[in-house]
């Protein structure tokens, strides 16, 4: 579920409707009370809030248009649905893809249709984690979208081009949301300190405590407000109106590590982490991994760096390295912290002790350099597509040798354009599994090019 910028406008996941202000009473969580009410109050997402932007035009002109919001957790997808509902005076209904089935989807659309017919009031149907819906469940949304019985706002953290059916994708305005910066989260916390809906200026927050809360929030504004509320409660229990670092640490049950996610230490630590893996020092790599995790670094960021390192520093010297890194990245998404620290640690150790080769990055850099230099050339005629009518009449596919019909499954023929016919981009090392690849590739390259 999207832990987005204050993402509970209705009832708990599984369905909700009615007034968006129902949960903004004084005993509601701080994150709920501080939920933005208008597009101008939304923090971050400058590209969506700009004058003339599609989202602003949609809201201000009160047009009926379905939206597909794609972005990481904590970026405000649910909040945008709530703002759209509030500013256009539409009824809000929430359906979670985790809990709802086709029956619940159809019931929500039927209710919206009835509301439209009898009262003339339109409905915003918010579907959280739409990528979790099956094709049949997504198909069930189409009648409501096509007939505009609902204004669908679907949220996803996955690439919609792979996780959302084409008919739904083509009928929706796709908006890409960016991760919130630390500056965005800091602004949210500072506003909550003084806002009448928040702490109303009753507490002072020390600078180091503020930075601690921002760091641990990991770009998630809702999480930062949850931590702030806990810290304020801890201060109040001690009879204090000042939230210092010790109080903030106690409240969120984490130690403040001297590690700046946006400053020099952020880049220094991640650099040392990758260089320790490259240098095969598993102990040092684990140290830097622990520093980042204890400081609240986004585990997805660490996982991405491991995936990159697997190809950049190891490559085919250990072909399983990339599989291991990708599996760790998937585990982070499926399991989350703190358990996923084990997966990250396993991948870190595996990559650190693996044999190393930078042949992959050198190969693609060399190929890219030639392309940028204009060494493009025509695709050899025998390799061109010959499946359409008339293709063979103009020489496409003529004299092509089918590799599987040749000895050893390798055909002697030209594959590269004339301009790079002698290029040798991939230069395997003699390290690890790449030593075997090196021996075979050198023989194969000669056979393809007819060299003896």
Task: Please describe what this structure looks like.
The protein is built from 19 helices and 8 strands. Helix content is 48%, strand content 8%. The strands form 2 sheets. It has a 6-stranded mixed sheet with strand order 1-3-4-5-2-6, sandwiched between helices. It has a two-stranded parallel ribbon with strand order 7-8. It is an alpha/beta fold and 452 residues long. The radius of gyration is 28 Å and the shape is flat. It has helices at 30-33, 46-49, 54-60, 77-87, 102-119, 135-146, 160-163, 166-170, 182-194, 207-217, 221-237, 245-252, 264-278, 282-294, 299-314, 320-335, 340-353, 359-372, 434-449; strands spanning 16-18, 66-70, 91-96, 123-128, 151-156, 172-176, 204-205, 242-243. Mean pLDDT is 83; it is low at 1-23. Strand 4, helix 6 and strand 5 form a beta-alpha-beta unit. It folds into 4 domains: 16-176, P-loop containing nucleotide triphosphate hydrolases (Rossmann fold, 3-Layer(aba) Sandwich); 182-252, Orthogonal Bundle (Helicase, Ruva Protein, domain 3), CATH 1.10.8.60; 264-353, Zinc Finger, Delta Prime, domain 3 (Up-down Bundle), CATH 1.20.272; 374-449, DNA polymerase III clamp loader subunits, C-terminal domain (post-AAA+ oligomerization domain-like), CATH 1.10.3710.10. It starts with 15 loop residues before the first strand and ends with a helix.
């Amino acid at each position: 579920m999207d832990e987005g910028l204050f993402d509970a406008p209705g009832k708990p996941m599984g369905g909700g409707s009615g007034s968006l202000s129902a949960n903004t009473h004084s005993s509601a969580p701080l994150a709920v009370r501080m939920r933005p009410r208008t597009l101008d109050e939304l923090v971050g997402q400058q590209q969506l809030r700009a004058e003339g932007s599609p989202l602003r035009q949609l809201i201000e002109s009160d047009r009926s248009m379905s939206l597909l919001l794609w972005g990481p957790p904590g970026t405000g997808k649910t909040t945008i649905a709530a703002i759209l509902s509030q500013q256009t005076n539409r009824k809000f209904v929430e359906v979670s893809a985790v809990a709802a089935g086709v029956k619940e989807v159809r019931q929500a659309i039927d209710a919206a249709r009835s509301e439209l017919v009898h009262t003339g009031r339109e409905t915003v149907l918010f579907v959280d984690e739409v990528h979790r819906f099956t094709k049949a469940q997504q198909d069930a949304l189409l009648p409501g979208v096509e007939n505009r019985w609902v204004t669908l706002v679907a949220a996803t953290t996955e690439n919609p081009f792979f996780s959302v059916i084409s008919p739904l994708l083509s009928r929706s305005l796709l908006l890409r949301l960016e991760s919130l910066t630390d500056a965005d989260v800091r602004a949210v916390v500072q506003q909550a300190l003084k806002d009448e809906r928040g702490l109303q200026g009753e507490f002072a927050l020390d600078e180091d405590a503020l930075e601690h809360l921002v760091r641990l929030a990991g770009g998630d504004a809702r999480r930062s407000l949850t931590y702030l509320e806990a810290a304020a409660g801890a201060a109040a229990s001690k009879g204090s109106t000042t939230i210092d670092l010790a109080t903030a640490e106690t409240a969120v049950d984490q130690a403040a590590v001297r590690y700046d996610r946006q400053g020099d230490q952020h880049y220094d630590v991640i650099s040392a982490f990758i260089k320790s893996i490259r240098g095969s020092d598993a102990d040092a790599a684990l140290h830097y991994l622990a520093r980042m995790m204890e400081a609240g670094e986004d585990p997805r960021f660490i996982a991405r760096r491991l995936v990159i390192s697997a190809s950049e520093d190891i490559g085919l010297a250990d072909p399983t390295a990339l599989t291991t890194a990708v599996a760790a990245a998937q585990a982070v998404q499926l399991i989350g912290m703190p358990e996923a620290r084990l997966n990250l640690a396993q991948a870190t150790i595996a990559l650190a002790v693996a044999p190393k080769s930078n042949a992959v990055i050198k190969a693609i850099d060399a190929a890219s350099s030639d392309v940028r230099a204009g060494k493009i050339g025509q695709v050899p005629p025998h390799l061109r597509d010959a499946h359409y009518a008339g293709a063979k009449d103009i020489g496409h596919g003529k004299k092509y040798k089918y590799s599987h019909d040749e000895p050893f499954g390798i055909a002697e023929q030209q594959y590269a354009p004339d301009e790079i016919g002698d290029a040798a981009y991939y230069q395997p090392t003699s390290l690890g599994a790449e030593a075997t690849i090196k021996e075979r590739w050198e023989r194969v390259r000669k056979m393809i090019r007819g060299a003896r």
